[in-house]
Each structure stands twice: as structure tokens, then as C-alpha cells.
Request: fold
Amino acid sequence: MSQFDVVVIGAGPGGYIAAIRAAQLGFKTACIDAGVNKAGDAPALGGTCLNVGCIPSKALLQSSEHFHAAQHDFAEHGVQVAGVSFDAAKMIERKDGIVSKLTGGIAFLFKKNKVESLHGKGSFKGKNGDLWQIEVDNRGERSMVEAKHVIVATGSVPRPLPLVEVDNVNVLDNEGALNLTEVPKKLGVIGSGVIGLEMGSVWKRVGAEVTILEAAPVFMGAADQQIAKEAFKIFTKEQGLNIELGVKINEINNNADGVTVKYELGGEVKTETFDKLIVAIGRVPNTEGLNAEAVGLAKDERGFIQVNEVCQTNLPNVWAIGDVVRGPMLAHKASDEGVAVAERIAGQQPHLDFNTIPWVIYTDPEIAWVGKTEEQLKAEGVAYKKGTSGFAANGRALGLGKAKGTVKVLADAETDRILGVHMIGPMVSELVAEGVMGMEFKASSEDIARIVHAHPTLSEVLHEAALAADKRALHG
Ligand code: FAD
Ligand code: NAI
Reply:
């Protein structure tokens, strides 16, 4: 039987990074993963993120943005294009190519770092002295490994909607939404969260009529509401996404004519039939098949593996990271927890600050933030000041033809320490890193205001917002 210092279960961005870091630190490491490729005929590392999440969705967002730009934006640059057409199958093929390249890249990194990659489902079997015994089930072929430390990184799966079953033909989860080879005429989306907005944008740009049905009365409740309101206006009024808030879904029928959804909105009962329906109402932790109960691995009431602030579970030398534990379900959060756990096993004292984990929504314009929203600061009774600046007069944004959006800097009223940075605009997925860096280094808004920002760049809008926080905006 093979024995390891560290066995990681799951090779998503949490698990594969934990395994690489553990191996780099000198531990004999194995990573067990059950993931398979789209065809279902070969192992595919990388978890949700690489196979059916972050990476494929961003590929489709880019392709659909190009198509939309060719139709609507090129002309103002003097670029005339005639007969623009769209090939959904080609877009999916390109996306699949990027996915295989990156998932294959992890197999390469495992070899390079001497991580033993074991394909199959990992489950707890018991203990042999102080070693944990983990069974690996590769389609019925069973083997056992033993390890001093186990890191559980089994991720998450889509939250099911009891009213309908996902068949990934007409009723789609994220996997199905990323694999349509024809543009649906009418697309329904349940949930205006991150997946709903990103996938709704993709299929809207390439010609679908998109209706998003959201239960919450408020749009993007977790985001700063000034930014959320601006986003809502752009998505609905300018881009034509039909977003209904405060909806109660009563019934869904998946039949030959399409998917019929009966719902209530403002006291009225409505019925809509869609060609395809995406269900994106959140994700739940995945502990299926892990045999957690047999060894007494504790979960909370929502099914997340219970961990303390450094990802220790209730069992000695068993750790858990990423989507299967509390905190935001984001790839970079999973990876950073993976690094931190490997380093902690090595006796180091790493620290991960949840308040500086950035969020990005890759719509157009993009939305990004770090730290506290204005609503949170008000609720916590924190005295703050704010500075905002827009992209409308930013030279780079105008040149790009993407001069929409706002950056807002929130800082402590007394100390000027940055408490939050919120953005909607072009490439703010990149710009938010400056806010994260500032907050990690406990910068004040004056620090950002006094740093030289290249001209003309999008970053000048953040600079200007920081100046505005101190009431000395130069272009405001
Ligand atoms: P996962 O990536 O879910 O990986 C878990 C792995 O464990 C899987 O390979 C699974 O097969 C394997 N596994 C499970 N159980 C077992 C077992 N018993 N034995 C062996 N293997 C097992 N996040 C971002 O930060 N940015 C984005 O742009 C972004 N876009 C997204 C888009 C979509 C459509 C979706 C669905 C998610 C997106 N996310 C994004 C979220 C991101 O994908 C997750 O936060 C991230 O993948 C979590 O990583 P993880 O390692 O915890 O788990
Ligand atoms: P989400 O939590 O972002 O949004 C789900 C939405 O569905 C919420 O607005 C919720 O109010 C709504 N909802 C719940 N039940 C409903 C019902 N019965 N009827 C109508 N609406 C209902 O979840 P989503 O979009 O499924 O994404 C899952 C997670 O994946 C995200 O929370 C995020 O962590 C991750 N993700 C991250 C991305 C990024 O970082 N860019 C992109 C996509 C996903």
C-alpha cells in the first residue's frame, strides 16, 4: 500500500494548488481526482473552474463580445464589416481547446512537482495508527492509500431547484449552459447571480432573447448598491437583458415545445415558454461519496465541512479548503487556502484575509470589488468618506470605446484607511488588484492619490476616485 505525507482529495483550483505546494515543501504527495473530460473518456484535472466554470465561461464571454462588437461597435471606428455571422459550434470548439490545454497543463505540473496523480473517487476508510486510509475507486477498480495529512478539496455542485430536473438538453446547469451549439431563440435563466449574468450575457450577445427570473427583490445584493444600480440600468436598458426581480417560481414543465415556467411577479401570475432554461440558483458543497460520516468528519447545517479559520476540521490532520468549506465560492479563495494549508502542515504561519478577497463579474462592463460596501459600513456604524470617478472622460476608455462605469473608493473618515473599492467599467477585473494591494498594505486613499498612475490608462479613474475621497479631484 502506498503511503504519503499528504493526500489531497479533489484537483480543482483548491486541491491541485495544495498538492503542488505540499510537494514543493518536500512532502510526498498524492492528489486523487474523479473528474473526467467533456467526452467522459479520460481524466481531466482542474475541477469545476477549469472544466465547467471560470475558464470556459470566460472563453465564451470573449467570443460573444467579439461577435457583438463586430455587429455594433466596429462601424464607429470606421471598420466596415458585412455579412457577419455566428457559429456557436465553433465558439464551443475554441472553448474546449482552451479547457484541454489548461487541464493538460495541470497533469504536466503534477509530473514536474512529483505529485502522484490518482484517478478515481476518494473516500475515507478509517485509520492505521496515525495514518488516514483513503480508498480510491476508479470505476470499480479499488486501491488504498495511507496518509499522515488529508486535504479535502471536493468543491461544489449546482444547487438543484426542486421544481425541475436538469437534463442538460433543455434545462441546463452551468455545464449545459457552456455547451450549447445553437443559439436558443428564447433563453430563460433562473437566478440573476454571477452565472446568470455571465451566461445570460453570452447568449444575449449572440442573438438570444434572454429573460432572467430572480427571487430576490434587490439586484446583486452582495455588491455595493450604487454599482449594482448602474449595472442593472446598463444590462436592462442598454443591453436588453430582461431581468425580473422579486419573482416566485411556481411550476416548470420541460416538454416537447420547450420549457414552460409559471411564476408570480408583483401579485400577477405569468407564464413564459423558453427554448432553453438555465438554472443558476447557487452552488452547494460536494461531499458525496467521501464517506465523511464513517470517520465522523463534521459538517455544518448547510452541508459544508466544518473548519476553523485555518481550515482544520474536527479530525486530527484532516483539512478542508475551497468551495466545500465556508466563505466565498471563488477559485482564488480555494487556491489561497490550498497554499496556506500546505504551508501550515510545514509548520509555517500563513494568513488569509477574507476581507481582501476580490470579486469579479465578467459582464461588459465588468464589475469588481474588494472590501466593504457602503451598505455594510452603514450597517456596522463605521464613519466613512467616499470618492467616485467615472470612465466617461477617461482618455483610454474613450479610445477603447468603453467609456461606461464608475470607480468608488471608501475610506475610514478619521484614519483615511481604505475600507472598500468598488468598480464597474472596462477591464476592472485587472484594476481591482490595485485596490486589493492597497488594502493588504493598509493603504490610505491618500496613498493611492499620491501614487503616479500612467497616462492614459484606466487606472487613472481609480487614482481620481482616491483624490475625490480627499475632496481634491482634478477632473471631477
Ligand atoms: P472544484 O473546482 O469544484 O473541484 C473539486 C474537484 O474534486 C473536482 O474535480 C471533483 O471531480 C473532485 N471530487 C469531488 N469529490 C471527489 C472525491 N470524493 N474523490 C475524488 N475527487 C473528487 N470562480 C472564480 O474565482 N472566478 C470565476 O470567473 C468563476 N467562474 C465560474 C463560472 C462558473 C460557470 C462556475 C460554475 C463557477 C465559477 N467560479 C469562478 C467558481 C469556481 O469554479 C470555484 O470556486 C472553484 O472551482 C472551487 O474550487 P475547488 O477546488 O474548491 O473545487
Ligand atoms: P449566486 O449565488 O451568485 O446567485 C444565485 C441567484 O439565484 C441569487 O441571486 C439568488 O437570489 C437566486 N435564487 C435562488 N433561488 C432562487 C429561486 N428559487 N428562484 C429565483 N432565483 C433564485 O449563484 P450562481 O450564479 O449559481 O453561481 C454560483 C457561484 O459560483 C457564485 O456564487 C460564485 O461563487 C461562483 N461563480 C463565480 C464567478 C466569478 O467569480 N466571476 C462566475 C460564476 C460563478
